[in-house]
Design a protein that fits this description.
Layout (H helix, E strand, L loop, with lengths): L9 E7 L3 H14 L11 E7 L2 H10 L4 E5 L7 H9 L7 E5 L4 H10 L3 E4 L5 H20 L15 H18 L3 E8 L2 H8 L1 H18 L5 E6 L2 E6 L9 H11 L12 E8 L7 H22 L1
Parallel strand pairs: 1-2, 1-3, 3-4, 4-5
Antiparallel strand pairs: 6-8, 6-9, 7-8
């Protein structure tokens, strides 16, 4: 005799969508995912609640919690990032997946930078892509419940953390591949950090890292993905013609020369840099760029040591 199937956990999904056609596509995809062959892919039962406007979404979120939110940014009563920021403020840590067209990817990516979990193209709105996105969001939500969420911001420098860099970097590479734009990864390493700590103490080392964060915010643009990757190593992911990108060393030196002399004795900030550039494809991941940039950083570090 066959044993009974275990009861499935019911997850509450809030769909915020003004277009009835697109809302119907989401409902059809979720209905299809209830079929037996998809149970292993998406083991949760998704209970859908539909809000047609931002006002309805706000009212629903103020009354009860949801496990995941599917959000179209362009609603009949709200547009673009304002929609996300309003919903995000009420979401109670529920992951938000942005629903957008291919023409709206830049706005969706901006929402991801502000804290959205991911985005899903409406052109790809079918049961399998939706199932994978929902599963990823729910698994992340379970991890948050099981342990403290890995921060997307570095507490010391207020730059993006390594986890945030991986998330945003992968999203940005996918977008660059679609738009056929080259990707350049810069690595910036605070040189002599151990000597700095030995000579001036932990506070001076922390101050140097904080000032490095300020430096990178100045020499890179808001559209670049800038992060503290680990320890004394920072990264910045840019999407421009490599020939039009000013060398990172030149930008760093110009910034350091612009600093006012300090009356307090303080160490001089020194850096070693590395970089890599490629044209992303659909299969390109961030690890490729990181390996190439780390190799270049290692070579440049060796040259710096040879000159001393």
């Amino acid at each position: 005799m066959n044993s009974p199937s275990p009861a499935r956990i019911c997850s509450r999904v809030l769909l915020v969508e003004s277009d009835p056609w697109d809302a119907g596509l989401v409902q059809e995809a979720l209905d299809e995912l209830e079929e037996q062959q998809y149970r292993k892919l998406l083991p949760w039962q998704m209970e859908l609640y539909h809000a047609e406007t931002l006002g309805e979404a706000v009212a629903a979120l103020e009354q009860e919690p949801f496990d995941i939110i599917l959000l179209n940014l362009d609603l009949s009563d709200s547009k673009a990032l304002h929609t996300f920021l309003r919903v995000h403020g009420l979401s109670r840590a529920a992951p938000i997946v942005i629903l957008c067209s291919a023409a709206e990817e830049y706005t969706a990516l901006a929402a991801v930078r502000e804290g959205a979990f991911s985005y899903l193209l409406k052109e790809d709105l079918d049961c399998l892509p939706l199932a994978r996105t929902l599963r990823s969001a729910m698994e992340r939500q379970q991890a948050i419940v099981a342990r403290a969420e890995l921060p997307l911001l570095d507490e010391l420098t207020s730059l993006i953390s390594r986890d945030g860099f991986v998330l945003l970097g992968e999203q940005s590479l996918q977008l660059a591949a679609r738009w056929q734009r080259p990707a350049t990864l810069f690595l910036v390493e605070l040189a002599g950090y151990s000597l700095l700590q030995d000579a001036y103490g932990h506070q001076a080392h922390d101050l140097a890292l904080i000032e490095t964060g300020d430096l990178l915010r100045t020499v890179f643009r808001e559209s670049d993905v800038v992060a503290r990757l680990q320890g004394d190593t920072f990264g910045a992911l840019c999407f421009d013609d490599p020939g039009a990108i000013e060398p990172i060393g030149v930008r760093i030196n110009r910034y350091l020369q612009s600093l006012s002399p300090s009356a307090i004795q303080r160490p001089v900030l020194c850096y070693v840099t590395g970089s890599s550039t490629l044209m992303p494809s659909a299969t390109t991941n961030l690890d490729v760029l990181l390996r190439l940039a780390e190799t270049n950083l290692l070579e440049n570090r060796g040259r710096e040591l040879a000159l001393r």
